[in-house]
Structures are given as C-alpha cells and as structure tokens.
Amino acid sequence: MKILVAVKRVIDYNVQIRVKEDNSGVVTDNVKMSTNPPDDNAIEEAVKIKEAGKAKEIVAITIGDDKAQETVRKALAVGADRGIHVKADGIVEPLAVSKILKAVVEKEKPDLVFMGKQAIDDDCNQTGQMLAALLDWPQATFASKIEVSEKSLTVTREIDEGLETIEVNIPAIVTCDLRLNEPRYASLPNIMKAKKKPLDQMTASDLGIDTKPRIEQIKVEEPPKRKAGIKVSNVADLVNKLKNEAKVI
Amino acid sequence: MSVLLIAEHNNKELKPFTLNVINAATQIDEDVHVLLMGHSADAVAKSISEVSGVKKVIHVDNPTYENYLAENYVPVILNLAQNYNHIVSAANTFGKNLMPRVAAKLDTSQVSDIIKVISEDTFLRPIYAGNAFATVKSNDPKKCITVRPTSFDPAPSSGGSAEIVKGDTAEAFSLTKFIKKEEIKSDRPELGTARVVISGGRGMQSGDNFKLITAIADKLNAAIGASRAAVDAGYITNDHQVGQTGKVVVPDLYIAVGISGAIQHLAGMKESKVIVAINKDGEAPIFSVADYGLEADLFEALPQFLEELNKLNTIQK
C-alpha cells in the first residue's frame, strides 16, 4: 500500500497573529513557520501504518513557495520515503489545492491520502473533502482512530455529538484530528538522512492547474478588542459582581 | 434565485443550529428553501415548514438517508443545485464534512464559517483562530457557504407556513458505510446553545475532579466545556471541547477554570458576553480576555463558589 500525505506550511500555532497595517493580510515576514499541526498527525499515522507492515511507501507533498519545502523535509525526517513540492506563490485556495492533489494522485496512484482536517491559517476545513469529491472516493474526515484492513479502513470520527464510526473502501481520503496520535520528533540523524531522500519539484502549471484565487480578499482586520477586565480578590466578590454588576446569574 | 439550505436533524428533531443558519440564509436572500434528507422524518419536515423565513421544504425520504453520510447527500444536492445561487449549511462537523464535497463538484471555491452577511456575495469570516477577520467576496456563479451558527440568532421556530414537496433520491454511494454513532446523552443544556458554560482545563488534574465543575453546572444550569488539554489528557470526552478545532460557544457567561488560555482555546470562547477566569497563575493568558479574573487555587475556589451560589436567593436559569 502507498500513502500520500499532504502537509502545509503555516504560521506556528504559538505565534501571536498581527494584522498588516494596510489590511491586506497578516504579517508573515520574520514570523516562525511550522507544519500545520494536524498534518503532523497525518504523517505520524502514515508512518505507524508503515511500521506495522501495512504500507510500503509514504510520499509527502506540499504546495507553496520555496520555503514550503521545509515541511516536506520534516515529513521525510519522521519517516516519509519521498517528497513532492508543487511550487505556487500567493494564496492557493483549497479548491486549487485539491485539483493539484488530484493530478498528483492520478500520477502516483496512492491507496490512501492523509492530511490534517483543517489548516490553522485560513481555517477553511475543505481540502480533503474536495479531493474526495474530485476523485469520487470515500472521505473519512476528523479521524481520531484508524484501523487498516486489506480493502478498507474503519475510522472513528470526532463529531459534535460524540464519536461516529464509518467504514471506507480503499482508496480513500482521511483527514486527521489532533487526537489521532502523538506525533514524534525527528532525531538529528534522521534529519540528516532526510536531506538525501528524493524530493521532486514541479509547478502547478506543469500539472495544468490554474491557481488564481476565486475569492477576493477585500480586507483583513483585527477583531474587535474586548474591554479590559478586572481582577477580583475573592470568590464572594466574584459572585457579587456576577449577580449585581454583570447580572448574569 | 433562491438559497438552498441543508438541514441537520436526527429524523426525529431538527438540530437547533439549523435555525441559526436559516436566519443567516434569509439575510442572503428572502427565498430560502430547506432540503431535508432522512428516513421517516415527516415530523421534522413539518417543524421546518413552520420556521419563520422558510419558503419551501424539499423532503427526500429514503432508508439510505437514515444516517448521514456526505457521500450520499451530495448527489441529491447536485441534482437540485441548478435552481439555486447559494447553497448553505452550518459550519459544524455536519456542514464542514458536507459542503466542500458539494463545492468541488460545482467547481466553486467555498466560503467557510461566515460570521456576518455583508451582501449576497460578500461575507465576514474569522481566520487564524479568530485573530483576524477577513472580508471576502465570492466571484463564483454558485456560492457554497458554511455559517458559524453561534454568530446568528436562531430564526423563530413558528410563524412560517412553507409548502413541503417530495424530492428525488439519487444513487447511493456504496464505498462508505455507516457503522455506529456514540452519542453522549446529557440532561444539561447543549454546549453550543447554553446560556452559561463552565469549562475545565489541565488544571483540573483528573477526570474525577470535574465533579467540582459539575456541581456548579448543576446550580447554574450550565453546559460543561473543556480545553483541548483536558480532553487530550482523558479527563473528559471530546464532545466537550471548546476551541479552534472544537466547538465555538458564545454564552452570556463563560467560566474558565484551570485553563491557561492557549490561542486555540480562546478562538472558541472569546466572543462570550461575560468571561470569568479562575487560575492560580496570575500571568495566564486567559486573564487577558476575562471580564472578571480570580487568581486562586481552583480546589479552594470552586467549593467556595458553590457555597456562595447556595447563599443566593435566586439564580437565573
């Protein structure tokens, strides 16, 4: 079995986001970037499946500018065998990403495609489902547990009401929740080895995909600020304020 | 042209968030049609027809649709899509799973998780865990939109008298099978719609200690929430998680106990009307969004809190 894992480079989850003064977006210059957190879970799960002897090859793919390669190198350092970097500048919307991934799936013919359930930059939560639609494959979104059989996966999904279990035939798309597993850290020797693993480069236009955004981003603003609160000295004071000042209890 | 809205339900009842989405849909276009796909869900069809603002209910009834699978819903929606400019659903796990599969089939770039309708093609949506708000304009001929339910009031559940028409089924998708749903039943208000939410974090130290929170929730008729750290540590189940990747809540009162206030947690609760933080670390980021901060050991503060509540003559429910 072959698993394709899509990873995205995003602003690190610990960075305090700042909006640009001209309202054209958020500040990304000199800001720490990392792999989108649930994409790390996607790589980890693929590596575990391979370690269990159920997959032969893991291919990590990213789409983005030159620096996006770092996310593929990181995936190679924790166990992916080979990388693909599809170069594209600017905003690439989930629809365009899924078209690029579809073109790569048609070439690579993986049995499974894994990715995080949502990127923490645009918070769209679309790409996996869109790719599944374009390929007419089953989709197992928000996965917190995956059991691999020969021809199918049994996936536990995190839904608002609790948990849902579905069975999807292979080939399938899985989008991963943060609770799927605990991503490992890359060891230094593995980081060195990853530098020698093959990494193919291509552009979106090589694949025949137009990445021009369909959605116009008119402006990006800071959210309204909350007014500064106060510290109360004890519980009695807190309850008094909630009752008589805020009038919420 | 009209808006097609995809209803979420369990064949017995409409999920309350559908009402919020109906309200948002009426702000896009007055002609709102609701698609109900299920099995033996006539009562749900009737209740939707009575919702204020709904002009038509399209009821597709078949055992195939008893359990929701996006793969089975999408072909039915695509058959109807030509009659509509907008297709909308809730930005919860139901709609998030469904809508992109529709959008990709229609070659539309979806607008996710809108919090405001500016015009029929322009919307406000949070990005970066709500640390920035983007105004976006969709230039696709058909617009696929998911709506953050808590950002819109629910449409009144009475006052409407929409016609109910039977809709056509489409071919079932045989490659995905529903196995089971483990729904956690609770007598408490639902987390997404509760007036008061009390949440615990890593500071609770164990699942057993959540009983301190439960006691206060009982008193305040509150829903119980949790930070991702508390869910990851196994103190409480995932359906309680508030945050960027959990639920977004906007109660009148949100009480955060032993929660440090990671960006991803704040994303799920910082629009609450009044926020209380109880934490022994005075530097915890949660205090930056709290209207009332109490720097205290939660194991002392929570029993005192209950005691003070017991002294009150009346408590709003």
- CATH T-level topology of the largest domain in chain B: Rossmann fold
User: Strand share of the residues of chain A?
Assistant: 25-35%
Tell me which CATH architecture of chain A applies here: 3-Layer(aba) Sandwich
Low-pLDDT sequence parts of chain B: none
Based on the coordinates given, report the CATH architecture of the largest domain in chain B: 3-Layer(aba) Sandwich
> Biggest β-sheet of chain B, characterized?
7 strands, parallel
Question: Major β-sheet of chain A, in short?
Answer: 9 strands, mixed
Oligomeric organization of the protein chains: heterodimer
Placed side by side, the strands forming the largest sheet of chain B appear as 5-9-4-1-2-3-10
Task: Tell me the name of the CATH class of chain A.
Answer: Alpha Beta
Summarize the largest interface: chains and residue counts. Answer: A-B, 82 and 90 residues
Describe the structure.
The complex is a heterodimer of chains A (249) and B (317). Chain A is of the alpha/beta class and 249 residues long. Chain A has one domain (2-244): Rossmann fold (3-Layer(aba) Sandwich). Chain A is built from six helices and 13 strands. Chain A starts with a strand and ends in a 5-residue tail after the last helix. Chain B is of the alpha/beta class. Chain B folds into two domains: 2-166, HUPs (Rossmann fold, 3-Layer(aba) Sandwich), CATH 3.40.50.620; 196-311, TPP-binding domain (Rossmann fold), CATH 3.40.50. Chain B is 25% helix and 27% strand. In chain B, helix 3 (70-81) crosses helix 4 (93-105) and helix 5 (210-220) packs parallel to helix 8 (298-311). The longest helix of chain B is centred in the last third of the chain and has 14 residues, at 298-311. Classes of the chains: A alpha/beta (249), B alpha/beta (317). At the A-B interface, helix 3, helix 4, strand 7, strand 8 and strand 9 of A face helix 3, helix 4, strand 5, strand 7 and strand 8 of B. Strand 12 of chain A pairs antiparallel with strand 8 of chain B, so a sheet runs across the interface.
